[in-house]
Write a structure and sequence with these properties.
The complex is a heterotrimer of chains A (219), B (671) and C (248). Chain A has 219 residues and is mostly helical. Chain A is 78% helix and 0% strand. Chain C has eight helices and seven strands. The termini of chain C are far apart. The chains are: A mainly alpha (219), B alpha+beta (671), C alpha+beta (248). Chains in contact: A-C, B-C.
């Protein structure tokens, strides 16, 4: 058990599990966001619940943040180790011949998503935290939709969000399906599971993009 | 009485080995820890011997020129390994395997050795399965067998077309276990350059570290040579590029007799030479002859048109084809033994019927088999009135299941689709039955120097049957040598570590250094390959598939002249004290240039046709066998063992008479 | 055909290497890639230069000695072949071909294109075997029936030739395909079960110590493997490793 944390396979499994956890979170996040384009009230209700429920706020939220931090820190650690495993580079390396762009550039798609997370936190999470835990402003269960609309007024920000979702799709395209292999799941069900993962990695980011555009156009 | 003592134990054939094992001396476990053994070569014989000796408790050092023991050329064996398990219940037994092997070898092997081989063959399979070798299996989970040329039972165990690989990796895994225990020290990328003798006994070797060029001394109480065959004396062969005779030849020069050098197996189903650039030949498993029909055009004009690219083989009708094996040998047809099939192909090509641009190829045609299997399959899958295309497709599928990997390999190399047009094949040098002379204990004429596997003159007589090489390599390494070497080493329990700072080691190292210096000091006119190719041409043309007195005498002179030229004018670039593959090759070719001459001398001496050795002077003059090989038991029923006396032409012949008490000598007939 | 070759030359493990340009003429499509290099070497020797050093032995695609990163791919552009079986008909007159050693920290260059793959051997030493004595005093071979599918799958994994193309192709220089092939061969057989836990832990541990990178499931190894060893083996090893870690 001791060597487990240092072992390459254990780290790989940890990447996969944290990734899967984030995929699950994405699904939940998307579901709530999606309500915003057809029912303002539902969106407000759900947001209010997520924003005020103590279980979500004080248990799930820290877990999520840990998951995100773990996933990207471990991603960097592995990337550095992997880069070091080939000290002298090839003069000519035809990576496209045997592996997809997505699989070879997880660090870059991941970095874009990470940068986006910064923007996203700045846009929503920080004001939210200030609102609730610094200013202790009174809770208004109908404020969420309005705040949301305001953010998507700027075409630049909307554009940035859309671009980020594209990179999220690229990241998921390899990451989601690959996590099955990492945890040792490769059998007759794998083909179906992989198809599902690939579909997910298109549908969810596309959904986020639709939401962003819809909100932008609502102005 | 010859000075050769084969040390065959007394008693009935079937009891000899058991009795011998019961009476030879053993070394107690505490003493084994004080005894060192060197094993040179890590193929099936060397790898299995090293693993077993280490397991018994000896300190083993292994040497191989490759970067890992796993790359030894045993890995390239395709077809399978024989064992008298009689799992198929088709009447197989130790005796039958023994009989088939002696007969297949044209009665030029030792009865006692071959019987022992058959006796331990079953153990090999048990052993390999226990260590995780994934042999082919039937749906019931039991081991599958197939049949090979020259026998009437199914006794060949296999792992698709990669049996040698799986067995070698099995032996290598046994080595790994001992390396992990610290009982084997593996010296990879090391080449043995000389054998060191102290008081007449083999006590060590001089080796060159191929990476650094350093010359190293290694001592031991016994030295095992398992360095494979010398087929590369022909330059082109199915051997690996690095396969060489150096270790065996160095031992020969230090006193080990070299037996039957002229016994060479020329395998009938190899991919033909495509041009002068050719560096080696690729074998296609003998199993292809089960379904392929061998032919050349009947009319010489058609053969010429095919060579000129004006005619395609598929355009010739059945009547225009000469299925020469079926014509000459109606009983065995395309399944005659290797030597017979090879000579028949050469005969047709020499007569001008060859079918590729070099004129040295015959067809191996699967069209009939595709039709046969296709119809069968259509019938069993309930298809009524299948179209010719459907039949063809079904048939091709069956062929693909059986030989898919071979067909793919052929297509990669030749760039023709063998499902649509017949394959082209030609015989190529494949295996050497000759090698260091050993007694029943596998000891050479140098005490303490043992030879195992293809490196010894072996149990195959004048011709080896398919799937027997793997059997012999593993039998020697796992089950024979570990016992017999103990008998010798039991006298060494008080010897203590052999020092390497003795005059004998000094002298051997000096010899090695002088030789390297001489090789590096050539005038630099021609590359090593230039000489190797020239030697190969002489060997192939004059000591190849059929031999005669005139050619052999010429060969002896030409090889001696070529050797002289080599030592004067060879060009070896680079430095001796670093990685230098050209220097490695030069040393190997220098020894081939000596062996080649002895080879021709041996072939000249043996004025009979037996197995792979065919003398044009010795053929049946009349009767049903007219024109076929004529063996001469009256005058040549012996093993030729050559003693080194300086130049190869001065080598002294010693004869070990072969005694047959259990088998009646008969003419091999495949008519 | 005439070709321009850009070949990595490096005197020894400690020297610095560089790409050097060579021209070869009159190359035929029937030549193997290594025979093309033979032509170059023969020319270099005649000119008094040192020939290009590369590993090779059986030249029939089974020993695993030959390597070479050709135009950025291990064993070149063809699939399911080793360099010795890659034929020049896959190239065109006038082509420029990059020839480099397989690159990985765990595979240091010995000279020119020759590399040291002993890291693979050490992974095997760590546990690539079944601890059974070679005395032959085992049970009868047919006393251990093995399901045919398992036996076949075990065989497929065991056909690995240890050439290192998987490491060379992997952007992370990971040795997971090689290691998992050996682990799988034994994991699929009843004979291998007894030591399964220790084996996978020891072999993975050694693999990590050798300095190979991590697997990120790009699948490049499977595509470039001359023997078509499947990624399934890696998944199997992950499973084996996890359950072994939890047990151990």
């Amino acid at each position: 058990m001791g060597g487990l944390i240092k072992s390459s396979i254990a780290r790989k499994v940890a990447m996969a599990l944290s990734g899967l956890f984030l995929v699950f979170f994405l699904l939940q996040h998307f579901t709530i966001n999606f309500t915003s384009i057809f029912s303002k009230d539902t969106f407000n209700e759900l947001s209010h619940f997520m924003g005020t429920n103590p279980l979500v706020q004080f248990v799930l939220q820290p877990v999520l943040i840990f998951g995100v931090v773990f996933h990207f820190v471990m991603g960097f650690v592995l990337e550095i180790k992997n880069k070091n495993a080939r000290a002298v580079k090839y003069a000519k390396y035809n990576g496209g011949a045997n592996a997809s762009w997505m699989s070879r550039n997880m660090i870059y798609s991941g970095l874009v998503v990470l940068a986006f997370l910064g923007l996203h936190f700045y846009d929503f999470w920080v004001p939210e935290m200030v609102h609730k835990y610094v200013e202790f402003a009174p809770e208004d269960s109908t404020r969420y939709y309005h705040e949301l609309l305001l953010k998507f007024e700027s075409p630049v920000r909307t554009g940035l969000y859309i671009l980020s979702f594209v990179f999220l799709a690229l990241h998921l395209w390899h990451g989601f399906a690959s996590s099955f292999q990492s945890v040792g799941f490769n059998n007759k069900y794998s083909i179906g599971a992989t198809k599902f993962a690939k579909a997910f990695s298109i549908v969810i980011p596309l959904g986020f993009i639709i939401v962003a555009i819809a909100l932008h156009l609502t102005h | 009485m010859s000075i050769l003592d084969s040390k065959i134990p007394e008693g009935p054939l079937a009891d000899k080995w058991t009795k011998h094992k019961n009476t030879i001396n053993l070394v107690n476990p505490a003493n084994k820890r004080n005894i060192d053994v060197i094993v040179v070569g890590t193929g099936l014989a060397g790898g299995s011997a090293a693993a077993t000796l280490a397991e018994l408790g000896y300190n083993v050092k292994t040497f191989c020129y490759q970067d890992s023991p796993r790359r030894a050329h045993s890995i390239a064996a395709q077809g399978g390994i024989n064992a008298a398990k009689n799992y198929q219940g088709d009447g197989d037994s130790n005796y039958r395997l023994f009989y088939d092997t002696v007969k297949g070898g044209d009665y030029r092997s030792r009865e006692a050795n071959v019987y022992r081989l058959a006796e331990v063959s079953g153990n090999i399979i048990d052993q390999c399965v226990a260590q995780g070798v994934p042999f082919a299996r039937e749906y019931g989970g039991l081991l599958d067998n197939r049949s090979f040329g020259g026998v009437l039972v199914s006794r060949t165990f296999y792992a698709k077309g990669q049996t040698g690989q799986q067995l070698l990796l099995g032996a290598y895994s046994a080595m790994n276990r001992q390396i992990n225990r610290g009982k084997i020290q593996a010296f990879n990328r090391h080449e043995m350059l000389d054998l060191v003798k102290i008081d007449g006994k083999a006590r060590g070797i001089i080796a060159r570290n191929l990476v650094t060029g350093e010359i190293e001394r290694h001592s031991a109480h016994a030295v095992v040579l398992a360095t494979g065959g010398y087929g590369n004396v022909f330059f082109l062969s199915t051997n690996a590029m690095g396969s060489n005779v150096m270790a065996a030849w160095r031992a020969h020069r230090r006193g080990a007799f070299f037996a039957n050098p002229c016994y060479t197996q020329i395998h009938p189903t190899c991919i033909p030479v495509s041009g002068d650039h050719q560096s080696k030949l690729t074998l296609m498993s003998e199993s292809l002859r089960n379904d392929g029909r061998i032919w050349v055009p009947k009319r010489i004009e058609d053969a010429e048109a095919i060579r000129a690219g004006k005619l395609k083989p598929t355009q010739l009708s059945e009547e225009e084809r000469d299925y020469y094996l079926e014509r000459r040998y109606p009983a065995f047809g395309n399944l005659v033994p290797r030597d017979v099939a090879s000579r028949a192909a050469k005969e047709r090509c020499d007569a001008g019927f060859g079918v590729n641009k070099t004129g040295e190829a015959v067809y191996l045609d699967f069209a009939a088999a595709i039709q046969r299997y296709g119809k069968e399959k259509a019938l069993t899958s309930g298809m009524h009135n299948p179209t010719p295309d459907q039949i063809r497709e079904l048939g091709e599928k069956v062929i693909e299941d059986k030989y898919g990997n071979l067909f793919q390999m052929y297509e990669k190399i030749v760039d023709e689709n063998p499902y649509k047009t017949p394959m082209m094949i030609y015989p190529a040098v494949h295996y050497t039955m000759g090698g260091l002379w050993v007694d029943y204990n596998l000891q050479t004429t140098v005490p303490g120097c043992y030879a195992a596997g293809e490196a010894n003159f072996s149990d195959h007589g004048a011709n080896r049957l398919g799937a027997s090489a793997l059997m012999q390599g593993l039998a020697d390494g796992y089950f024979v040598l570990p016992y017999t070497i103990g008998d010798y080493l039991s006298h060494d329990i008080r010897t203590g570590k052999i020092p390497t700072d003795t005059p004998e080691f000094d002298q051997a190292e000096k010899d090695v250094r002088d030789r390297i210096e001489k090789l590096m000091g050539g005038s630099g006119e021609h590359s090593v390959d230039y000489y190797h190719k020239k030697l190969g041409k002489i060997m192939w043309n004059k000591c190849g598939m059929s031999r005669n007195e005139k050619d052999l005498k010429e060969a002896i002179g030409e090889i001696a002249a070529l050797r002289e030229d080599f030592w004067k004018n060879v060009k070896v670039p680079g430095e001796a004290n670093s990685m230098n593959p050209e220097l490695e090759k030069a040393g190997r070719v220098a020894d081939f240039l000596e062996l080649g001459e002895l080879f021709a001398k041996d072939a000249l001496d043996r004025n009979e046709s037996c197995g792979g050795h065919f003398r044009e002077e010795s053929v049946e003059q009349d009767g049903e066998q007219k024109g076929e090989a004529l063996r001469d038991d009256k005058n040549f029923k012996y093993v030729s063992a050559w003693e080194y006396k300086g130049e190869p032409k001065d080598a002294k012949l010693h004869k070990e008479d072969l005694v047959f008490e259990n088998i009646e000598l008969k003419t091999r007939s495949y008519k | 055909m005439n070709l321009t070759l850009k070949i990595w030359r490096q005197k020894d493990a400690t020297s610095k290497g560089a790409i050097v340009d060579y021209q070869v003429k009159g190359i035929e499509g029937d030549m193997s890639f290594l025979e093309m290099l033979d032509v170059l070497n023969e020319e270099l020797i005649t000119k008094g230069e040192e020939p290009v050093v590369f590993d090779h032995d059986c030249r029939e695609g089974i020993c695993g000695a030959c390597s070479l990163q050709i135009n950025g791919e291990p064993h070149g552009p063809d699939r399911l072949v080793t360099t010795c079986q890659l034929h020049m008909r896959k190239f065109n007159d006038g082509d420029t071909i990059y020839i480099e050693p397989f690159r990985a920290k765990a595979f240091p260059v010995v000279k020119d294109l020759m590399i040291d793959r002993s890291a693979f051997d050490r992974i095997q030493h760590a546990g690539g075997y079944i601890s059974v004595n070679t005395s032959g005093n085992t049970i009868d071979a047919n006393a251990i029936p093995v399901n045919k599918d398992d036996a076949d799958e075990s065989f497929e994994a065991a056909t690995c030739i240890g050439c290192g193309a998987c490491v060379a192709a992997c952007k992370n220089a990971s040795a997971m395909l090689f290691t998992s092939a050996k682990v799988s061969q034994f994991a699929l057989l009843p004979q291998g079960q007894v030591e399964a836990t220790d084996r996978v832990l020891a072999m993975v541990n050694q693999m990590d110590e050798e300095g190979f990178g991590n697997c990120t499931n790009t699948g490049a190894c499977e595509i470039e493997c001359p023997k078509g060893i499947s990624l399934e083996n890696i998944a199997r090893m992950n499973r084996e490793y996890l359950s072994a870690s939890l047990k151990g």
